[in-house]
Design goal:
The protein is α+β, with helices and mostly antiparallel strands. The protein has helices spanning 12-18, 35-38, 46-59, 75-85, 93-100, 102-112, 130-133, 159-172, 174-184, 191-194, 251-267, 302-309, 314-321, 357-366, 405-417; strands spanning 3-10, 27-34, 66-69, 120-123, 140-144, 154-156, 201-205, 210-219, 222-233, 240-245, 273-282, 287-294, 337-345, 351-353, 371-374, 393-402, 422-423. Strands 12-11-8-9-10-13-16-15 form an eight-stranded antiparallel sheet, with helices on both faces. It has a four-stranded antiparallel sheet with strand order 4-7-5-6, with helices on both faces. The protein has a three-stranded parallel sheet with strand order 2-1-3, with helices on both faces.
Length: 439
């Protein structure tokens, strides 16, 4: 009998990836909430989303075998509530919030891995005296307590930067912060966390270097790692340009971040779920710093795992949700290296032309196993894009596989030149100079 697996934020694109797991023929995947209902929304009415999802599960006439998700907030916090109500395994809400709540997360990191944790402080962006109360020198990063895709994240070098960032933050923070406050009601919070709500910010000392994510899972109390993905930025280290698998960091550094990740996830009591811990590594000083923890696999990494391992990383969350130890790293794919590239434009303008379906099909036929996903449409202003970082706009995603990093990047540059975009400011898509990672 097929197992019924309900997915928060399911669409046709990710359904194809989920079907690239072992024993996929034994599963029936059901959409619990669409991406339009849970992800691509201007506001996140958490209680309404929860009621909608629970109602659909109650109306289902068959057996509910698992609930999974692969997106950021709010789906990550819907999961423990729904699983708890239907008797299914998942991490606790408190463990998930120790990842999602940036201030709580830093406190936990500091307790178990102080040498990996930048100096930090909570900050109320609506307090006119916030800067003078802050015991942290310039420069520092300013971020909401809960955000994603670097939304409302700013580097602060001086008071003018701070004033600009606070103005932007006050205008936009409630979009996610109000919903995050709704989530906090479902958890038992320590006093020092209860007073730092979703509309607060965290200021953090600057940590820099190359960036890598450790994807893992915890099953029956034992943390394990199934892959390391390099998160590569542009040469200015402003915006992400690709997620590359497998990591090309030196093996000793990889082992250090793997062990640190396992210690951290065990410390916060995270169990029966997937996670990803991101790190900076400064090559010159050999120092490591934790960037953040995500309580999920990343759907941005799924195609890369398929190309290299022969199975999507959805394998991990499905296996854990079904109550069995995952067996993942197969090295059974066609390629030695794969990446999701983020084609960007660094200035706001209006899109006057995008590649046609026929043009995209021709490009994809030329580059075997490539996939091009447009994120913009003709006539739109780039400022209409949601969930962007503070420095650029993501206009397309390009998925590629290759037999080496050099071949991978060369393929990307050749393919991206074949995509004919036009903009009202008359400038082309920038030829991004990558931050090179090669060992």
């Amino acid at each position: 009998m097929n197992k019924n697996i309900f997915v928060i934020g399911l669409d046709d694109f990710h359904l194809k990836e989920m079907r690239q797991v072992r024993h996929a023929e034994d599963y029936t995947f059901h959409c619990l909430l669409t991406t339009e209902e849970a992800i691509s929304v201007e506001r996140f009415p958490f209680d309404q989303m929860l009621e909608m999802a629970e109602s659909r599960l109650k109306r289902f006439s068959g057996r509910i075998d698992a609930i999974i998700e692969h997106w950021d907030f709010p789906s990550s916090t819907l999961l423990p509530i729904l699983c708890g109500r239907f008797g299914l395994p998942s991490p606790s809400m408190e463990a998930i919030l120790k990842c999602e709540h940036k201030y709580w997360s830093r406190l936990e990191q500091q307790r178990i891995l102080p040498e990996f944790t930048p100096h930090f402080a909570a900050l109320d962006p609506f307090d006119d005296r916030a800067l003078e109360k802050l015991d942290l020198p310039f420069p520092f990063w300013l971020k909401p307590i809960k955000s994603f895709s670097s939304y409302l994240g700013f580097r602060i070098d001086n008071e003018d930067d701070f004033r600009h960032a606070i103005k932007q933050t006050r205008q936009g923070i409630r979009r996610v912060g109000d919903a995050f406050n709704d989530v906090l009601k479902y958890a038992e919070l320590p006093p020092e966390i209860a007073e730092v709500g979703g509309n607060h910010c965290i200021a953090e000392a600057i940590a820099s270097g190359l960036q890598c994510g450790v994807e893992g899972y915890t099953f029956e109390g034992k943390p394990s790692v199934h892959g390391l993905i390099d998160t590569v930025k542009d040469a200015r280290r402003w915006s992400f340009t690709r997620y590359e698998y497998p990591s090309v960091w030196p093996e000793p550094v990889q082992q250090r971040i793997i062990e640190a990740s396992k210690r951290l996830m065990a410390h916060i009591g995270y169990d029966n779920g997937a996670w990803c811990v991101e790190f900076f590594w400064h090559e010159d000083t050999d120092e490591l710093a934790i960037v953040e923890i995500n309580p999920r696999i990343s759907q941005s990494h799924s195609d890369q795992f398929i190309k290299v391992e022969g199975a999507s990383n959805h394998q991990v969350i499905i296996d854990v949700a079904m109550g069995r130890e995952p067996e993942f790293c197969l090295n059974a794919g066609k390629y030695q290296s794969a990446a999701k590239f983020l084609l960007r434009k660094y200035h706001n303008t209006v899109v006057t032309r995008v590649p046609s379906e026929k043009e995209i099909a021709a490009v994809q036929a030329t580059f075997e196993d490539s996939l091009v996903i447009l994120l913009v449409r003709e006539g739109m202003s780039l400022s209409e894009l949601s969930n962007q970082d503070s420095y650029s706009f993501e206009i397309a995603n390009i998925y590629l596989g290759a037999q080496s990093q050099r071949e991978l990047v060369d393929k990307y540059r050749e393919l991206s030149r074949e995509l004919h975009f036009e903009f009202a400011d008359g400038t082309p898509v920038e030829d991004i100079q990558f931050e090179w990672v090669k060992y």
